Amino acid sequence: MLYLVGLGLGDATDITVKGLAAVRGCSRVYLEAYTSILTVGKEALEEYYGMPLILADRDLVEQQADEILKDADVTDVAFLVVGDPFGATTHSDLVLRAVHAGIPYKVIHNASIMNAVGCCGLQLYNFGETVSLVFWTETWKPESFYDKICKNRKAGQHTLCLLDIKVKEQSIENMMRGKKIFEPPRFMTVGQAADQLIQIIERRREEGGELGVTEDTVCVGVARLGADDQLIRTGTLRQLVSCDLGEPLHSLVVTGHLHPLEVDMLRINAEPDALKDLKSIDSSTFCS
What we know:
Blueprint: E1 2-6, H1 17-24, E2 28-32, H2 42-49, E3 54-56, H3 58-63, H4 65-69, E4 77-81, H5 92-100, E5 105-108, H6 113-116, E6 131-133, H7 144-154, E7 159-163, E8 165-166, H8 172-176, E9 186-187, H9 190-206, E10 218-223, E11 231-236, H10 237-241, E12 250-254, H11 260-267, E13 279-282, E14 285-287
Parallel strand pairs: 1-4, 1-5, 2-3, 2-4, 6-7
Antiparallel strand pairs: 7-12, 8-9, 10-11, 10-12, 13-14
């Protein structure tokens, strides 16, 4: 049996009772280590689970998946995923490989950023398409995420922005030379994400383009959701550029139409004057 086990968002104790029982009954346990992180390290998980963990980087999962599935038809193997196995990052390929090999599988779900983000005060059924923001380089500055955010806002919907994670990444130079030298881990902050969005806004304004998001759009920055030291900050996009939310992981939400209850919830963690320019669309709807 292949078990895909969600670990939740905080620390080692966030695994479910069902998930922990499955892990402790497995002969091998892999920890997916490239799409997200917990606030504790591998050693803390091993101590709590009472099992050794095998780190599964992108290369192992995407290029050598057969190694993970080896003997899973006759023994139990667990694949641990921060959050939910089918939350922000899906692992459908691993499931399909198991099915094609005749290996049964079971998914044990847990909380993920996709539902935990509701703690910021915005109602989950008012969210549109989720987008990912990537680190720009000197020669690559994609903007497609901005257009998706604008599309959501036009429909009155909020947008959850998942921020880039660089773990065990190679520089282009080392990649071209075939050197297995990896760059230090990097995690995009809310401030960096807000700055990239503002650069897009400024460029499109200069080109005379229609702006679906501006520097005054109300947004929410969240950090380390599920941990004891989680932080939530509501502010305009301009305010969030200089907002320090500390250690990773960070996510950004760009608001759409706001119900009065959502506005009241946003005030709890709002920067000064963040909500002062909200416009009333009707008696029960606001926007920025």
